[in-house]
Specification:
9 strands; single chain; alpha/beta; about 450 residues; 17 helices; two-stranded antiparallel ribbon; 2 domains; Rossmann fold; seven-stranded mixed β-sheet
Length: about 450
């Protein structure tokens, strides 16, 4: 027992006096573990600490073993981001500075920019993005939005996810503007799109060829689901083409799927004739649930985690103003339908929702509405050209303070249905998607 007692000291702050233990891959840890085992029990390693028992030494050996195994190369985590125009993203890079004007979002801006104030280029996040403009791939940075001057949620999703996981990730993004769940993204298990009697009668009254319309619908049904799946499988078949440092021995893990879509379904009164009533979008809930099931089946990933980005243009409906009142029921019904799959017993532990209404910028929204009223006043005056522009500048100087005008100028780059083209809104949404996905990882 004397020898035992002199060879061990403070087990919680111990350090090896000698021995450099290195392992290039998981397979090399067998020898390392064996060396630890023999060293601990034969007195090869000396520790700074008082006397401890044989049991404490054994616990330390186990701790070292699991620490080393945990340090092995992990599979590359792959995330899918899919949807329509708001998943594409219409927030121009020029609106980044608006984040810095708010103390709450300024820290996020520092993560989005390098020390020179340029969009950060990640060295641990790679992306492959298929959209209307074809395929773009590379290190994650700004420019993977609807065009190379814009961002979508992918930018801060990737930044936040990599930060929270502490390991490299790959994003596969597929998004196209103006696409529906009921037709374009309709998944195989959802069945054919069937026109209602009312729809068919309306087409006939309009003098349209019903058979031609049905044939066109059949061809369009599921087209973008197939495009999405083809691109995903193409990237996964040779990840090194997108992620040069990919280690095929360590492999990859399908870690999560983010769905951010909805506008074209929300406004479609033909497919959802009772959309202003409770349950009027029940078909959307069914289609989204089936979509989740089909994606999991097609990717052989039965527990693939899903985050649903619930449409939130305009912010919470209880904050709608008088001119928006007629939309309240429809918008809330659709948001409820989007969130419904996450409440089902079968999906509740693997599907989460992010209410993007919570990232809507009410201050910016208010400024945009005030500016729109000025435009309406100018229209009433029936002014045109330089005269209209001069009048608008005059009215704006009267309406806005310098601070308000700066916020409006720096914060907006697109229409409300594209979340005002605001990087502040879009960056919050992307970060929210990542945080929700991490919560699901815990489940």
């Amino acid at each position: 027992m004397g020898t035992e007692e002199t060879n061990l000291s403070n087990i919680w702050s111990s350090s090896f006096e000698s021995s450099s233990i290195k392992a290039a891959s998981f397979g090399d840890y067998t020898g390392v573990i064996a060396e630890l085992f023999v060293g601990c029990f034969m007195g090869k390693f000396k520790f700074r600490l008082p006397t401890v028992s044989f049991l404490a030494r054994l616990c330390f050996f186990i701790f070292c073993t699991f620490s080393l195994v945990d340090g092995a190369e992990k599979p590359l985590k792959v995330f899918f981001l899919v949807g329509q125009s708001n998943m594409e993203g219409h927030a121009k890079v020029e609106t980044f500075e608006h984040l810095g004007m708010d103390p709450e979002t300024a820290p996020l801006l520092r993560k989005m920019q390098d020390p020179e104030g340029r969009p950060r280029v990640s060295d641990k996040v790679w992306i492959s993005y298929l959209s209307t403009n074809g395929v773009r791939s590379g290190r994650l940075t700004a420019g993977f939005g609807a065009d190379e001057a814009k961002i979508g949620p992918e930018f801060t999703f990737g930044i936040t996810m990599q930060e929270l996981l502490g390991e490299p990730i790959l994003i596969i993004k597929t998004a196209w503007g103006g696409k529906s769940m009921h037709t374009d993204f309709r998944s195989p298990g959802a069945g054919d799109y069937v026109f209602s009697d009312a729809q068919s009668e309306r087409f006939v009254k309009q003098g349209k060829d019903l058979n031609a319309i049905k044939a066109e619908k059949e061809e369009a049904t599921g087209h973008y689901y197939r495009e999405m799946m083809d691109h995903v499988k193409l990237v996964l078949s040779d990840i090194s083409q997108v992620y040069p440092d990919y280690d095929a021995k360590s492999g990859h893990e399908l870690a999560g799927f983010v769905w951010f879509q909805g506008w074209n379904d929300m406004v479609d009164s033909g497919t959802y004739p009772e959309r202003d009533k409770e349950g009027g979008y029940a078909e959307y809930s069914r289609l989204l649930t089936q979509f989740i099931d089909d994606v999991r089946n097609d990717l052989s990933s039965p527990k693939l985690r899903f985050v649903i980005g619930v449409m939130g243009v305009g912010g919470p409906v209880d904050r709608y103003e008088a001119d928006q009142a007629r939309y309240k029921a429809t918008h809330q019904n659709f948001r409820d339908a989007m969130a419904a799959p996450a409440r089902s017993p079968e999906l509740k532990d693997t599907v989460a929702v992010v209410l993007t209404e919570n990232y809507w910028d009410m201050e910016l929204d208010g400024l945009v509405k005030r500016d729109e009223k000025l435009k309406q006043e100018i229209r009433k005056l029936k002014l045109g050209g330089k005269e209209a522009q001069a009048k608008r500048e005059e009215l704006r100087k009267e309406e806005f303070s310098e601070e308000e005008w700066e916020v409006l100028e720096r914060g907006v780059s697109n229409a409300a249905y594209h979340y005002l083209g605001s990087a502040k809104i879009m960056a919050g949404i992307g970060k929210g998607f990542a945080e929700a996905m991490i919560d699901l990882q815990g489940n």
